[in-house]
Design goal:
homodimer; alpha/beta; Helicase, Ruva Protein, domain 3; Dna Topoisomerase Vi A Subunit, Chain: A, domain 2; four-stranded parallel sheet; two-stranded antiparallel ribbon; 8 helices; 11% strand; DNA recombination (chains A, B); DNA damage (chains A, B); DNA_Rcmb_RecR (chains A, B)
Amino acid sequence: MSSNTDIDNLIELMAKLPGLGPRSARRAVLHLIRKRALLLTPLADAMQQVAATARECLNCGNVGTSDICEICNSEDRATGELCVVEDVADLWAMERAGVFKGRYHVLGGTLSALDGVGPEELRIPRLRDRIEAEGITEVILALSATVDGQTTAHYIADELQGRVRLTSLAQGVPIGGELDYLDDGTITAALRARKEM
Amino acid sequence: MSSNTDIDNLIELMAKLPGLGPRSARRAVLHLIRKRALLLTPLADAMQQVAATARECLNCGNVGTSDICEICNSEDRATGELCVVEDVADLWAMERAGVFKGRYHVLGGTLSALDGVGPEELRIPRLRDRIEAEGITEVILALSATVDGQTTAHYIADELQGRVRLTSLAQGVPIGGELDYLDDGTITAALRARKEM
């Protein structure tokens, strides 16, 4: 493509990133070459740094730079509340909102009979252990409102029934959302969960 | 965001790539961490390699690993034809088509009075020199069919008038294109340039 194997190799690797295809990978690589000092070298260094230091928290599945992540290590976050999320991106989204002060448990996906994903693949046994070990009193199931997400939520709820308080995120109209653009399911859920003003 | 400065730094740099925003950069970085051995480390190495070796061809503006690129160095490509393109991505697109056997001249943009881009910024003086030095007989103007692209093409045509044969890419219906989806300008151009069958 570029009559240069180093550059072609970089384009090929970039095209494997989610959200990039061959065309956008070529554009990104040309941009990187143009901004070598400002972007390409710092990006290569940052990747090497993360490759060397990033690891999964053995306790909750978050990514960080130590075997036990900062959140699991922080005594301030031992509130007895445990928020169960599908993946690290969801944990980051919760942290950006900045409203939850407890700890997390990252499942690493959802149960899926089709894809052969069972409870053992999902860090669910570890969840059971943590409830005893960390004196958890409430488990908040913050899973996607998809079929697989809700199947997983129900499975976990069945497993933990009677041992802790189990809650899930409220469903309804998103802040700033216009009714006209919402799907029927969301409107139905929002109406059923309506509140006194 | 991730309560980790190394990872946040990588996300911030990734978000500067064209086609990626903060959200897709986060997704890409999580994907990279998950595929550390398969993708993150090779990508970091490939970037370092390109950062160390990539340079602009002093003759034509192509990117390669030497001061004079492979195309300019190849005697086979001294056909007397010179294809003028806006940027390296356009050169690569021409090379993928594999039909042009001559050399290229990368302008590095288009003339733009608004953005203060004049001929000196665009490697146009170098183009004049090359016509003498390399015995160019035909200059093919492969510039975008935009206002700036066509202004640039006319400027270059004026400059070189009488010294070489000047041509431009044909305009018409793209291969596989459906009339229904084409803009009026393309249909008009295709009709005016209609050919006997």
